[in-house]
Each structure stands twice: as C-alpha cells, then as structure tokens.
DNA sequence: GTGGTCTAGACCACC
DNA sequence: GTGGTCTAGACCACA
C-alpha cells in the first residue's frame, strides 16, 4: 500500500492521507485487522510532520474506519461497511453540494455529472 | 431570491453566499443581466461584514458567473453556461473525490451514491 | 463628433469622455476654437449624470486641452500641441508602467508591445 | 529583491506591490519556484496591513504569475511566459489607450511615444 | 449610495 | 509560524 501526497494541493495533507487509506480499504489492499504503519514511520516516509499523520489517523478513527490501540498501533476495523445512516448521508450531501452546484452552474448536465462521479469511483477502485 | 447563512457551519460564510447565488442562477431565479443586491446592503441584511460579501462577489466574478461594475453593482453574466473544460472537470473531480471515497468506505454502493447526487441536484433545482 | 460610452467598462465614464474628446482633437474633428456641447446637453445625450461630464471638462481644462468660459461653454484651446515637458513625460511614464510591466510578464517581447502601441495610435487616428 | 512603496501615490499600494513583483520576475531576480516573503512578514517590513499584501498576492495568483500554497507560502509559477492571448492584448490595449491618447494630444509624435515605452522597458529591466 | 482601498486586531486550521 | 477567515470601522472616487 503506497501513499503519495501532493504538498501543493488545496486539500490538506492529513486529508489526503485519510482518503488514501480509505481507498486502500475499498480496493481490498487493506483488510480488516491489518495494521497501519506507525505514525512516526509514515510521517518520516512521507516527509511530513508527525502531528499531521496523527490527525489523519484520529480522523479515520472518528469515521469508524480504524481503531487506534495505544502502544500497539492502528488497525483496520472489522466491519466498516455497515451502510450509511441518515445522518451520514445528510453530512455527505452537505459536503458534496457546493461542488455539485459549481458543476451545474458551469453548464454540466445530469449525465455529465454522473459520469464524473463514475469516473472517480472507477479510478478509486482501479489503482490510485 | 433569499439567501440564508449558517454562521456555525464549518463552510465559510463567503462560500455559502457564493453557492446560494449559483443555486439561484441554476433555478432561474437570477437571470442573466439581473443585478445582485449591493455588497453593503446584503451584508447588513445577513448580519455579516461587508468584506465577507465582497469576497463572495469577487469569487463569483473569478468564476465568470457575475460581473462587478464599479459604482453600479454586480450583474449576472450573460452566458455562464459554456460547458466545462478539461481543467475544470479535473478540478471538480479533485474536490469531489474525498467525499465520494468517504461514501464508498461507509458501505454505499454505486447506485446509492448516484441517488445521493441526484437528490442534491433535485434539491438545488426545487427550492433551497 | 460622436461620443460613446461603455458603462460596464473598468474605466470611469468621465475618463472615457475626456479620452474621446482628445481623440476627436487628434483626428482633427474638433479644431481649435470650436465649442463643445454643453454639460447638460451632453449629459442627457449620454444618459449620465451632469456631474460626470462636468468632471470630464474640468479634467480636460487641467490638461490644457480646452478652456471653460463661464456662461458660454467649453472651447478647444488654440495650441494644445506644444510638445511634452519633462514632468509630463514622467507622469505619462508612471501611468504607462504598470500596464507595460503586465504585458512584459505575460510574455510579450519588445516588438509586440510596440506593435500594440502602434495599433492603438492607428485606431485613434482612423475612426473610434 | 527589494520592494519599495509610495504610500502617497494614487496607485493603490497592493498594485504597487504586484507590479514590483512582476518586475522582479522580468529581471530574473525572482525565478520560477522561488518563494515570496510571507504575507505578514512583507506587510510588517513595508509597514502596511497584512490584508493589503494578501490582496497583492491573490491578484498575482489570478494573473497566473504566482501560486499560493496554503500554510506554505507563495511561489513563482513555473511558466508565466506563455505569450498573450487575444483577450489579454485587448485588455492591455484598453488600459493603455487613455494614456497613449493623452501623450498624442500633448503633441508627442509616434517616435517619441515609442521612445517613452522603450525607456520604461529598459528601466524595468535594469534596476528599479 | 456604490464599490475600492486600507487599517487594526482577532481566532482558527494546518504544518 | 503560515495563510484563511471574519469583524469593525474608516476615507475616497465615482455616479
């Protein structure tokens, strides 16, 4: 499982890391029970601050994707795939909305927007 | 055209305003050539600072959605709907990706995600 | 001598008017001694505020291009073409500099910038 | 790279700063990839408000001259010199026109105006 | 009255 | 320490 970050991106590094871990889970590269690299190890590999990785892991824990076991490490949760609750979909909807609106106002029609989402999902599943 | 903001949201106020103006355009409530409320007027209506609205309007101008005419006001651009370029869709894709990944990892399947996007688009078109 | 204004332009209306009067002089459409339209008349023709035209005329007078005779009107000065003084060229240089710099940084070479200036001068002399 | 401002000038401070950064790029003092001083640092050096420099930098970013990397700084863009497009030259032309007209009406001939432009370009390239 | 510009000072997220 | 965001209040040019 390789993680690559783009320091120049608008997206915060900690968020890039969380997202890529989630992508690894989706692709099956990271299976339930598997252990993530240590905070310090991953930080030095990526050349970023330890606190940044720490934040990523705690975000993932808050999302229920991993469990942080003090002194031992972070492990992928057994069953993160439980379907989305009403609150979750509402939250996702809120996050998606501004970008969807931007796409709509730039003249994309519904099919094009769906195709865009499809291309993202395909891309996530295939490689990185 | 009513604009409502949530000061407590983690989405910046200026961004909430920009998004709602774009939604108004999509719904046809704001037609090309129409004039937006003055920076100071809208600011006092919403109970926020002038500079916050100023930033919204300048962002919208940078996106090509409105034109700011000094001493006269901000008007909706004549042809904002020109279809999205390659760079634009790439940018949109980048912005969408983290949330789409989050939806995937939470167990939503492709149909559910498409339904979510559809519900957003419907919601944007209907009212607010 | 027709004057046209673009209310949408970044350039203030009073400045557009002054510039076009000067262009008329350069083309010979407005000869020394000729009388300009009245402030009120021109303002209503152009659909702008009287104060705006007033400002144009006073700017032109400050530049030595016209003379405002109270109760009588504004007349083109007899000899506006006296060559530029050191202070004038310095002032012109200051005004030109930011735009020239912008052209340079956008990748235009010296010849292209000269060609641009030439096209402006030709355009001024030909029509409007 | 030194930046000097004239608070008394009728040219806005933020614009003076942008122009001088562009001049530094033209002279090669600021090479692609180089990092500009921090917004707050430069502001305190020049004795102006942070927001003033912030506006300069965002304007330069809108012009494609620099890239602002949140939490990291502003860097000179790799390839700002891409030649000017039709719209760009039209815009430059509009900005140049009033001053060129003023020069013409003051009696300068074409050669003198070209010499003036040359002196500006030489001045920009040499020092400041 | 409108937008443009500027200041002073504040809190926050990120690194 | 960095940029991002926001507020409060000010003066000016323009219409």
From TrEMBL, chains A, B, C, D:
Ranges where the HTH gntR-type domain occurs: 11-79
Pfam families referenced in this protein's UniProt entry, alphabetically: GntR (PF00392)
Alphabetical keyword list: DNA-binding, Transcription, Transcription regulation
UniProt cross-references to PROSITE patterns, sorted A to Z: HTH_GNTR
Signal peptide: none
One Gene Ontology molecular-function label: DNA-binding transcription factor activity
Entries under PANTHER family matching the protein: GNTR-FAMILY TRANSCRIPTIONAL REGULATOR, HTH-TYPE TRANSCRIPTIONAL REPRESSOR YTRA
Protein name from the UniProt record: GntR family transcriptional regulator
Originating organism: Pontibacillus chungwhensis BH030062
């Amino acid at each position: 499982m390789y993680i690559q970050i783009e320091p120049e991106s608008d997206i915060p590094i900690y968020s890039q890391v969380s997202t890529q871990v989630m992508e690894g889970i989706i692709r099956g590269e990271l299976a339930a029970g598997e252990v993530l690299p240590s905070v310090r190890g991953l930080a030095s590999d990526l050349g970023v601050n330890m606190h940044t990785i720490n934040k990523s892991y705690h975000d993932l824990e808050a999302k229920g994707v991993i469990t942080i076991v003090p002194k031992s490490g972070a492990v992928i949760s057994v069953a993160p795939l439980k379907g989305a609750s009403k609150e979750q979909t509402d939250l996702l909807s809120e996050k998606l909305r501004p970008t969807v609106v931007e796409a709509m106002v730039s003249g994309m029609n519904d099919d094009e927007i769906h195709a865009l989402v499809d291309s993202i999902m395909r891309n996530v599943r295939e490689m990185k």
